[in-house]
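Question thread 4412

I'm putting together a teaching handout and wanted feedback from people who do this every day. The idea is simple: show students a protein as raw sequence, then show them the structure tokens that encode its fold, then repeat with a second protein so they can compare. Below is the first pair exactly as I plan to print it.
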Amino acid sequence: MSATGDAAVAAARQPDDGRGPAGPVGSEPIRVLIADDHALFRRGLEMVLDEEDDIDLVGQASDGTEAVAVAGESLPDVVLMDIRMPRTSGIEACRATKEVAPSAKIVMLTISDEEEDLFEAIRAGASGYLLKDIPLDEVAEAVRSVHGGQSLINPSMAGKLLTEFVTLAKRDSEEERVQHVAAPKLTDREMEVLKLVARGMNNRDIAKELFISENTVKNHVRNILEKLQIHSRMEAVMIAVRQKLIEFS
């Protein structure tokens, strides 16, 4: 079993919320789209996801352009997107997919742990960034986690991302800062939650830290994303650093 895959899923795994492996009774299956130019890799994902009662594979694509078209037709809940594909790259397809299927959570799949790729994926609206050496039997749990609102990312790569955020914030000139739209005001509690999200903490650990329920944490995170008009926790951290809502030493 891959240590990288273990870490990625462990970072996103949340305590049991009563849903069980197949989700709440009577709930709709999670609709998944696979986009990868390697047919063998797509087939592997297909075989694994077909075994899950709470996951429904609604489409496949072999390049970025096709991925956007299929996403617009099938409106998936989760897209597993290769970062490097012909015609349209995964990064470009991620941005376009957020336009045609705004509610879709996109997980970038890659063999690369390059910081620039990671940063661009988050900026493009990705909710996760997983290396392709994740064991196939952990993919379904990753899909459930990101569908449930978690950001999927290796802890080691999360550190790289925060470092990139800090570099970006320092690189911004005064002129660029003036052009930034003023950030919506977050409540004191929302700021506390955001700072803990930036430290890589999951909802359960944030709840323990602040002595509040996990559902309350989820509500705060949802409010933060709505106020900042973004789709992922990592984007929230990026904007918070750029707007100097939070700082890292």
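The second pair follows. I'd like the answer to focus on this one:
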Amino acid sequence: MKEKIKSIIAASISVKQELLANETLQNKIAEAVEVISIAFDKGNKVMFCGNGGSAADAQHLAAEFSGRFYKDRKALPAEALHCNTSYLTAVANDYSYEVIYARIVEGTGNAGDVLIGLSTSGNSGNILKAFEIAREKNIITIGFTGESGGKMKTVSDYLFNVPSKDTPRIQESHIMIGHIICELVEEKLFG
């Protein structure tokens, strides 16, 4: 059992070491920090979406902005788009689960907003549809995926494709990248 535990920890560290060595990814993180900071500075919002564990991660990261990260500061307009269960179940029932995020982005998204989608495969249909609507509305899209980037690779303005095919390792790195972005945006906006 202890060897299995060590093996899992080592696998997580290995993925993060690849990210640590990836200057392109680090530059993209810096760019995302800039884009998100500008959006907040101009009064725009950041929306998050995901499915399953990625929905939980989306909600977690939205809360880091709307609540706080390290600093006591004003709340930033960020939300996870799946938190209104009445909306979610009505649209899934009346239309399709595929459009749950697209409809809310269409209804509440504005040019200059940022939409962050988390999908380990990069192929979540409801996130892809939301990104398509976002593009039509001049909303910046940031994709968090696994190694291949999936279909999100072509619809993301910024893509963080974690170098792994293992869902838990990908999600662990999504949270790490998200935390880095939250910390640096907070520093940039609030000193």
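Top answer:
Good format. For the second protein you could add a caption like this: Strands lie at 46-50, 78-80, 114-118, 140-145, 158-161. The mean pLDDT is 97.
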